[in-house]
């Protein structure tokens, strides 16, 4: 084991953890004021539930021994409760398995939270939590196995433990989760939108972002945490982490510029929301590619992603689907762009050491990228649609129209996000009193 | 007694307040309000979607004054609030039946 690598991965795990509250603020600022708390809570719920599921069977499902030896599913019971994890992580051999498990836990939490932006203002909280748990179990954990679990080999090069099929059989390059995280979450977001339908009054009466400074704060936290997300995925503090770190910076920088340029040309004004969105689009697209391209390649990918996502988010009005905060337009489209562009911009001088189409490698890597991207997209879209449909048909997923009219914060959480004056608000029941004893306070003070 | 109400541009509030103070008016109520008039709204763009904002931010100032000082105060407020642009607002005066100062119980002219 190596203390430097271990320290790096633990710090990166903490950085990635911060991305989920960052995402909550990024999304929270974009909804109308009376839905901000529900938006925050959907992300926080993931930090709670998925964190616990990860310890129970999530890690084991993603990184346990492959059940049938075909790379589809890790054994959910092998490391149940994270027993028998003490010792060095098998592939890197330089960090504790617990550090790797903690780092990967943050990925699972963030991926589930990403989906929530598509169903702003209209998903009941209980069913959302249920969906989050089911989706993590049936979609994220297996797909993480496909993409992130590498074969273990002995000194003679023989496979001693089978990993995921996309990582090993297809050999698609997805360094930090363009497929497993972003295409996966983006496709699930699309499925939820199709099942739940648009917000009442969309697009005319659903309001505009209520707090853009909050959005920028969230984007800043996401960018900061993303250095852990990408550079931490090297699982060691060395050359690869350093290249990835720089690529993560410039990919987002270039995408922000491209998004603002598209806005300037199409609408006359570069906007704050566009800058924040461009940053995230660039980060999404560079995520799968950051170990496979040169810094100039990262700039190219960022420019393409920023411009394409800026155009993609306008499509929903034409296609008539209410992807409220553009999870599809940014994460699905950005994830596809980044994953596929690896096939074009991969350079042998990057740590991955693979040449793409533009660097004399032909189409070999491109088709591998395509297979990985399409497989995750299709699996996530179909299964997410089915899960959401079952929940909607059984317990009901969507809030009723009265609740939607009153605002989801009031309906689902009995709170409001902003209190600028105390007028008209008095304490009716202290926290310790029984519910229903409405005049308990007067009674105890008289 | 009269109630003078002025709805003015946000940027002119300090001038109006200073004009009132210089005339010896010591109390006023200032509120941030929104409304529409002859002034055009504006357009905002969020991820390519354009929103028209027809209701604009204004500031409303309410002042209780004596009948004798109405003309003088109205002139001062109008002069202070004017920028010459559409959307400078309005000033109007309404009669008041009675006034009570809460702390002392003084009434009417003595309470204004």
Automatic annotation (TrEMBL), chain A:
Topology versus the membrane: Multi-pass membrane protein
UniProt-recorded Gene Ontology molecular function terms: ammonium channel activity
CC per GO annotation: plasma membrane
Domain of life: Bacteria
Keywords assigned by UniProt, alphabetized: Ammonia transport, Cell membrane, Membrane, Transmembrane, Transmembrane helix, Transport
Location within or outside the cell: Cell membrane
Database matches in InterPro entries: Ammonium/urea_transptr, Ammonium_transpt, Ammonium_transpt_CS, NH4_transpt_AmtB-like_dom
Residue stretches spanning the membrane: 6-27, 39-57, 95-116, 128-150, 170-197, 209-229, 241-261, 273-289, 295-313, 325-346, 366-391
Ammonium transporter AmtB-like domain: residues covered: 7-418
Database matches in SUPFAM superfamilies: Ammonium transporter
Family: Belongs to the ammonia transporter channel (TC 1.A.11.2) family.
Subunit structure: Homotrimer.
Classification via PANTHER family: AMMONIUM TRANSPORTER MEP2
Function: Involved in the uptake of ammonium/ammonia (NH(4)(+)/NH(3)).
Protein name per the record: Ammonium transporter
Species per Swiss-Prot/TrEMBL record: Actinopolyspora mortivallis
Automatic annotation (TrEMBL), chain B:
Subunit structure: Homotrimer.
PROSITE patterns in the cross-refs: PII_GLNB_CTER, PII_GLNB_DOM, PII_GLNB_UMP
Family listed: Belongs to the P(II) protein family.
Species this chain originates from: Actinopolyspora mortivallis
Keyword Disulfide bond: no
Swiss-Prot/TrEMBL keywords: Nucleotide-binding, Phosphoprotein, Transcription, Transcription regulation
GO BP field: regulation of nitrogen utilization
Protein name stated in the entry: Nitrogen regulatory protein P-II
Gene3D superfamilies given in the database record: 3.30.70.120
SUPFAM superfamilies (UniProt xref): GlnB-like
GO MF, any single term: ATP binding
Gene Ontology terms: cellular component: cytosol
Keyword Phosphoprotein: yes
Modified-residue entries (O-UMP-tyrosine), positions: 51
């Amino acid at each position: 084991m190596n203390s430097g690598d271990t320290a790096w991965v633990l710090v990166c795990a903490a950085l990635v953890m911060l991305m989920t509250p960052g995402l909550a603020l990024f999304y929270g600022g974009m909804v109308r004021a009376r839905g901000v708390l529900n938006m925050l809570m959907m992300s926080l719920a993931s930090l709670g539930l998925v964190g616990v599921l990860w310890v129970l069977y999530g890690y084991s499902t993603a990184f346990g021994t492959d059940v049938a030896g075909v790379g589809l599913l890790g054994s959910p019971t092998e490391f149940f409760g994270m027993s028998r994890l003490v010792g060095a992580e098998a592939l890197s051999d330089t960090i504790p398995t617990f550090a790797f498990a903690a780092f990967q836990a943050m990925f699972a939490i963030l991926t589930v939270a990403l989906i929530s932006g598509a169903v702003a203002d209209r998903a009941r909280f209980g069913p959302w939590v249920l969906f989050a748990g089911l989706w993590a179990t049936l979609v994220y954990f297996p797909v993480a196995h496909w993409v992130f679990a590498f074969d273990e080999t002995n000194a003679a090069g023989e496979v001693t433990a089978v990993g995921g099929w996309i990582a090993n059989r297809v050999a698609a390059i997805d360094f930090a989760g363009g497929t497993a995280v972003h295409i996966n979450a983006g496709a699930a977001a699309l499925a939820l939108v199709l099942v739940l339908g648009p917000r009442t009054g969309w697009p005319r009466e659903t309001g505009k972002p209520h707090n853009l400074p909050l959005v920028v704060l969230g984007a800043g936290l996401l960018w900061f945490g993303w250095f852990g997300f990408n550079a931490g995925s090297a699982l060691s503090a060395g050359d690869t982490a350093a290249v990835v770190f720089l690529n993560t910076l410039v990919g987002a920088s270039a995408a922000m510029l491209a998004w603002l340029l598209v806005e300037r040309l199409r609408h006359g004004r570069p906007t704050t929301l566009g800058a924040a969105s461009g940053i995230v689009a660039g980060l999404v697209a560079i995520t799968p590619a950051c170990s496979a391209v040169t810094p100039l390649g990262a700039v190219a990918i960022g420019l393409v992603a920023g411009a394409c996502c800026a155009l993609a988010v306008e499509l929903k009005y034409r296609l008539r689907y209410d992807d409220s905060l553009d999870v599809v337009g940014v994460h699905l489209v950005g994830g596809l762009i980044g994953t596929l562009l690896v096939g074009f911009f991969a350079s042998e001088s990057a740590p991955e050491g693979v040449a793409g189409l533009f660097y004399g490698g032909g189409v070999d890597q491109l088709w591998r990228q395509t297979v990985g991207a399409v497989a995750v997209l299709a699996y996530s879209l179909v299964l997410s649609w089915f899960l959401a449909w079952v929940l909607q048909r059984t317990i009901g997923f969507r809030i009723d129209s009265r609740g939607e009219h009153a605002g989801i914060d009031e309906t689902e959480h009995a709170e409001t996000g902003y209190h600028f004056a105390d007028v008209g608000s008095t304490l009716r029941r202290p926290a310790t009193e029984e519910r229903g004893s409405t005049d308990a306070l007067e009674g105890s003070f008289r | 007694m009269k109630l003078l109400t002025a709805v003015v541009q946000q940027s002119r509030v300090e001038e109006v307040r200073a004009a009132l103070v210089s005339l010896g008016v010591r109390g006023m109520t200032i509120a941030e309000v929104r409304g529409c008039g002859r002034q055009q709204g504006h357009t905002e763009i969020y991820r390519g979607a354009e929103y028209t904002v027809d209701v604009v931010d204004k500031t409303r100032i309410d002042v209780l004054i004596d009948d004798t000082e109405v003309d003088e105060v109205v002139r001062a407020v109008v002069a202070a609030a004017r920028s010459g642009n559409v959307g400078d607002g309005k000033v109007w005066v309404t009669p008041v039946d009675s006034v009570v100062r809460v702390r002392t119980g003084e009434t009417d002219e003595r309470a204004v």
